[in-house]
Amino acid sequence: MTRYPVDVMPKQMFPLIAIGAAILALALPTPARAELPEGVRAMIEAAMETGDEGKIKTVLALARQTHPDGAEEIDTIEKGWKTRRAEAARLAREEKARKIEEAGLFDLWSGEGQLGGFDSSGNSNNIGLSAGLKLKRQGKDWSHALRATADYQRSNGVTSREQFLFAYEPRYQTSDELFFYGLAQYERNALQGFTGRYAVSGGVGYQVANSADLKLSVKAGPALRLTDFEEGENETRLAALFGFDFDWRIAERLTFTQDANMVAETGGAATVIVDSTRTTLNLVTGLDAKVSDRLRSRVTYAVDYDSKPPAGKVSTDTITRLTLVYDF
After folding, report:
1. β-pair partners for 271
2. Which has the minimum average pLDDT: 81-95, 174-188, 288-302?
3. 53-66 vs 71-102: helix axis angle to the nearest 10?
4. pTM of this prediction?
5. 290-327: per-residue pLDDT in tens?
6. pLDDT digits (tens, 9 = 90+) for 27-71
7. Nearest to residue 108, comparing CAs of 144, 148, 134, 132?
8. Cα separation of 45 and 84, whole Å?
9. Whole-number Å distance between alpha carbons of 12 and 248
């Protein structure tokens, strides 16, 4: 057999050597890819079953930190989870759109009812009742909200509080943030000196924040308001309305709410504008504590302010309500 020095080896032999090296490489055992321990995989799957995105990301990060050799498998698991989540969200949107398209006039309504009261006897006999109802229908672009509240109190046989409010507000959502609203509202409040106050308004609003834990919207527009005073006088005025709604979920079972409407009137009768002005403010601050999936306890503090109250009345009226709220 002829032996050649490496530097003078015929070129025809190089392919044979390469093939032999490849065969040898295949024959040798390759190091096994590190796999995640079964316990770690089970922990990741358990987190994904909860559907809590924050918890899932935390578990995935801990798995990567404690088992860096299994990063490739963890990436595959995370990719599959994101794909399933995106598909589920798509199917949910399609199902929601289908239900909205097929819904009738009395479908898709949700709401809450609240009730609170007291009865005392002895040196004074007092009875009081506070009730409220909210209904909302959420469509694809349109939403409709109805709100009604009533407060009634008698002290020693004399009616000391009689306050009612009813409001209807439709909204048209042009984008995720921008919307147009309408408002029709009726109030009766003997403490502030009027037997009826009717208001209509329309304008534009903006959804500043809209997440699971924080919601904030603002709105503004012109308004027309008619007030019937106890003395028999009537007042029709042009106005500007400003309002905001704020909801903040402080904890899993605790929610802070803030609703406010401010109306600044011109001193005019219908289309006649004079120099006098009136500004009113309705502010409701509340705190909800969840008792069960449908039942909540609520404490609210409401302020009604009128810069130009009738003779013998004060500008500011407040009331604290303690109620139970049932969601349906």
Report:
1. none
2. 81-95
3. 170
4. 0.68
5. 999 899 999 998 888 888 888 778 888 888 888 999 99
6. 544 444 557 788 888 888 888 888 888 889 898 998 888 888 888
7. 144
8. 13
9. 79
Q: Is residue 205 a contact partner of residue 219, using CB atoms and an 8 Å limit?
A: yes
- 110-327 carries CATH number 2.40.160.40: yes
Specify the 3-state DSSP secondary structure of 105. Answer: coil
What integer pLDDT is reported at residue 19 of this predicted model?
53
AA identity, residue 3: R
Per-domain residue ranges for the chain?
Answer: 14-102, 110-327
**Max Cα separation, the chain?**
130
DSSP code for 310: P
**Helices 38-50 and 71-102, packing angle to 10 deg:** 20
Cα distances from 179 to residues 122, 147, 174, 294, in angstroms, run 53, 19, 5, 29
Contact 180, 141 (CB under 8 A): no
The number of beta carbons lying within 10 Å of the beta carbon of residue 223 is 22
Gyration radius (Cα) of the chain, Å: 34
Backbone angles phi, psi at 34, to 5 degrees: -65, 130
For 183, counting Cβ atoms within 10 Å of its Cβ (0-12 exposed, 13-18 middle, 19+ buried), the class is: buried
Distance (Å, whole) CA 43 – CA 66? 13
